[in-house]
Specification:
CATH superfamily of chain A: Phosphohistidine domain
Radius of gyration of chain B: 21 Å
CATH topology of chain A: Glucose Oxidase, domain 1
CATH class of chain A: Alpha Beta
Number of strands of chain B: 14
Oligomer: heterodimer
Number of domains of chain A: 1
Number of domains of chain B: 3
Number of helices of chain A: 4
Order of helices and strands of chain A: EEHEEEHEHEHEE
Shape of chain A: globular
Structural class of chain B: alpha/beta
Number of strands of chain A: 9
Strand content of chain A: 25-35%
Largest interface: A-B, 40 and 42 residues
Strand content of chain B: 5-15%
CATH architecture of chain A: 3-Layer(bba) Sandwich
Helix content of chain A: 25-40%
Shape of chain B: globular
Strand order of the largest sheet of chain A: 1-7-6-5-2-8-9
């Protein structure tokens, strides 16, 4: 499916979607050692984000989320990619700096309404490096 | 396409060294994300990247530092992951503490002032109305924008120090008039006037607004014109934890909101009523469980102001904390001389209150006994501590916290929430 995508951080990724029911603060809400959600009030407490395509409208809370996401990318517990509905500087810079420091690939893109709505938990998608285009491999 | 000055281009070309070039690359990436057409100068920065979140943050800082980067505007530093003045309080593992120390060193080497506080707006040299600044730390951001009328976007780790080094930020979002327009009106409805006189109401109000405001700029209608800075600080800190609020207006209270018309810049707003049952629901969310023994009290999130310490002195009234209870009050080191001069540090020591500086008790392991509940008057502490340090939390007023600390068990003021 071709779509109107804005690339905040380029990179290639393929994985299974985890759609977050509520925004997440990586700092205080996600443990980079395990890759799991640790926010006790998040409906998906305990869910692992490692190697998944994480879909959420936006980040929330702490400005330290940048550093936590970068650390998760460094040690390999991070999402494979993050798809947002609204641009989020705090998330984008965590991925950008980690990719720069460690040569990793964790794209961050902003999807249009239609694509965003189609990204349901469990489907497998591919994100292209050039334009962030999302291809649904297995719905 | 970004319009860069000669100096900006000098950074890109590496004229100020590889560290400064890396910093400018990050500022330019941010500009692209924010769709800015140019950069603007800032007069100060507040850097949050000095909290240790793992090796990545240290690798980043050392790349800047070793690349010769220095801050080019006055820069304050946020809390670190350890109490530098009272190392005996740090309970974390030695390797992590050593890395946290290394990170601290890198930011000091780059020229950051050793303030180690999340409440830089309580320092004498705080920004004034209209100042363009680059601040990180979610509660500091919302306070600077809302209460001081200074202008910062919601900056996070890495971009904060990059702006401090270059002295530049993308001209976008909350730096511009149009980004500061209030878009959603929260109207207090049937909230008992007596509750508006209680400090405990304000973090709960902020928590509720944060949960429901998404990317809107909230306008609050109905809080008293005399609402103190500490109460506005509590609204901001809570709303920036449960949500991502970076600016709110309060009609008749905050500087850009003399009227609804001014706060909304004459635009449309959607209206949300806040009713007693909403407040009760938000309050109850801040307590995870209360059926375990009380182990500790944690106040000073964000860092306690001198007024806050004054309230604590009054409530303590020279009495002692129960020997089974740890009592922590977190603050910035710059408030210590004044606390000392007023004789308050001695009173705290005699009462059994531990003053924590340079860090905060939900950021890093300081509380010793975490097998019961910790009581706090901070919505932000209540929001983050369960995930960060693995404790259960009871939320209450400062007076309830102090009474509970003395009794050694949770003590409630039964009339506090009358009408809710």
């Amino acid at each position: 499916m071709a779509s109107d995508i804005e690339v905040l951080v380029p990179g290639q990724a393929q994985g299974i979607v985890v759609r977050l029911e509520e925004p997440l603060s990586f700092w205080g809400g996600f443990d980079p050692k395990t890759g799991a959600i640790i926010d006790h009030r998040h409906p998906q407490l305990g869910v692992s984000l490692t190697d998944h395509i994480v879909v959420m409208t936006r980040g929330r809370g702490s400005s330290s989320s940048t550093g936590v996401l970068a650390e998760a990318i460094r040690i390999g517990t991070a999402p494979a990619a993050i798809v947002l509905r609204e641009p989020d500087l705090i998330i984008a810079l965590g991925a950008l700096v980690a990719n720069d420091l460690y040569g990793t690939s964790c794209p961050v893109i902003v999807a249009d309404d239609r694509t965003f709505a189609a990204l349901r938990t469990g489907c497998t998608v591919d994100i292209a490096i050039e334009d962030g285009a999302i291809t649904f491999i297995d719905v | 396409m970004l319009d860069l000055t000669e100096r900006d281009q000098g950074f890109v070309a590496g004229e100020f060294g590889p560290g400064a070039r890396f910093a400018m690359e990050i500022v330019l990436s941010a500009a692209e994300t924010l769709r800015a057409t140019h950069l603007i100068d800032v007069v100060s920065a507040h850097v949050d990247s000095c909290i240790y979140n793992g090796q990545a943050g240290l690798d980043f800082a050392e790349r800047l530092r070793d690349g010769g980067a220095k801050v080019s505007v006055p820069t304050t530093l946020n809390v670190a992951s350890l109490d530098l003045l009272h190392p005996e309080l740090n309970q974390g593992d030695p390797a992590t503490l050593a890395s946290a120390q290394q990170l601290v060193r890198a930011y000091v080497d780059m020229g950051g002032r050793q303030t180690w506080t999340c409440a830089p707006y309580q320092l004498p040299e705080r920004p004034v109305f209209g100042d363009q600044i680059a601040w990180a730390e979610s509660n500091a951001i919302v306070f600077a924008n809302s209460v001081l009328g200074a202008r910062t976007n919601r900056y996070g780790d890495f971009i904060d120090i990059s702006c401090a080094i270059t002295g530049r930020v993308p001209a976008a979002g909350l730096h511009l008039d149009e980004g500061r327009r209030g878009t959603r009106l929260y109207r207090l409805a049937d909230i008992p006037p007596s509750l508006l006189e209680e400090d405990v109401f304000y973090p709960v109000l902020g928590h509720l607004i944060g949960l429901s405001s998404g990317n809107e700029v909230p306008i609050i209608e109905g809080i008293p014109l005399s609402t103190s800075e500490d109460r506005l600080k509590a609204i901001g800190a809570a709303s920036a934890s449960s949500g991502s609020v970076a600016l709110f207006h309060a009609i008749g209270v905050t500087p850009e909101a003399p009227t609804l018309e001014a706060a909304s810049q004459g635009g449309d707003v959607d209206v949300v009523e806040i009713r007693p049952q909403d407040i009760a629901g938000a309050r109850d969310q801040l307590t995870t469980r209360s059926d375990l023994p009380l182990r500790a009290i944690a106040i000073g999130t964000p860092h306690l102001s001198l007024d806050g310490f004054g309230q604590l002195i009054t409530l303590l009234d020279g009495a002692k904390i129960h020997p089974d209870i740890e009592f922590y009050a977190s603050t910035g080191r710059d408030s210590l001389p004044e606390l000392q001069q007023r004789g308050w540090l001695d009173i705290f020591e005699r009462s059994g209150v531990t003053v924590v500086t340079d860090t905060c008790t939900y950021v890093t392991p300081i509380v010793k006994k975490i097998d019961g509940v910790v009581m706090t008057d901070s919505a932000k502490w209540a929001w983050y501590a369960p995930g960060n340090i693995g404790v259960d939390v009871v939320f209450g007023s400062l007076a309830e916290c102090v009474a509970s600390a003395m009794a050694g068990r949770i003590v409630r003021n039964p009339g506090l929430w009358d009408g809710i």
